[in-house]
Specification:
Layout lengths: L2 H13 L3 E2 L6 H4 L5 E2 L5 H15 L2 H7 L1 E4 L3 E6 L4 E4 L4 E3 L6 E3 L2 E6 L7 E2 L2 E5 L2 E5 L6 E5 L3 E4 L2 E3 L1 E11 L4 H23 L7 H21 L3
Antiparallel strand pairs: 1-2, 2-4, 3-15, 4-15, 5-13, 6-7, 8-12, 8-15, 9-14, 10-11, 10-13
The chain binds nickel (II) ion.
Length: 228
């Protein structure tokens, strides 16, 4: 999100009503969760949430990485005064409040609304197969990580950490397959880029042919692995 969007949405969020964050936690996570949230059906949460989802649908890197089928309407949390969220795994299935619609949480997302220097602590710490990742991004930036990961939020000891958080059900449930598709997609895009940048007369018919072949393989793997 750009700086203007972040400023406008943040002002709306800060003026909204905030409640105890345990309202959306499962039993284990409720025992380690200490933060504030905007109620799920609050009009500001719905409006800013819809703008986030619309921005993601136009974001090619998000679409390539998540291969999204359903995006849970974003929720909003705030940590201040030493608040934290201890180690947990997100619930596997979430019902969208007020509907019969349930989504499987394949990917978790956190979008930051405060600049890192505005608060002390508040790192999102994700333990995945590649080790421990610490995330504290600039306002307007988002991290996407596998919902199978254990994770926690470090205590915020100065200032306030304001974020949107939500989940994505992917068309490709398996992290390994989704990662292979993402890597293949990125490689094809690099190849297409170098084909497009070839000087007149320097075009390589082999590169063109390989790009077409790899694009075919990408789509055929999606056909094998995707649910729609
Ligand atoms: Ni979580």
């Amino acid at each position: 999100m750009n700086a203007d969007q972040v400023r406008e949405f943040r002002a709306q969020l800060e003026a909204a009503e905030w409640v105890d964050g345990r309202v959306t936690a499962g039993r284990q996570s409720a025992s380690v969760k200490d933060n504030a949230q905007i109620p799920e059906n609050h009009p500001v949460a719905r409006e800013v949430g819809a703008a986030i989802v619309a921005a993601l649908e136009r974001h090619p890197l998000f679409v390539a990485a998540a291969l999204p089928m359903h995006v849970f309407p974003p929720l909003f949390n705030r940590y201040a005064g030493g608040q934290s969220f201890g180690t947990h795994v997100d619930n596997a299935i979430r019902q969208i409040t007020g509907t019969n619609h349930r989504i499987r949480t394949d990917l978790s997302a956190t979008l930051f609304f405060a600049e890192p220097e505005e608060y002390e602590g508040g790192e999102l710490v994700v333990e995945d197969t590649y080790g421990v990742q610490e995330v504290k991004f600039p306002a307007g930036s988002m991290v996407l990580y596998p919902s199978t990961s254990l994770h926690h939020v470090r205590p915020v000891t100065r200032g306030a950490r304001l974020c949107a958080f939500f989940w994505i059900q992917s068309m490709v449930r398996d992290d390994v397959r989704r990662t292979l598709l993402f890597d293949l997609d990125m490689a094809i895009q690099q190849l297409n880029q170098s084909v497009a940048e070839a000087a007149p007369g320097q075009e390589s018919p082999i590169c063109n042919g390989v790009a077409v072949q790899l694009t075919g393989i990408y789509h055929n793997l999606i056909r094998q692995w995707a649910e729609v």
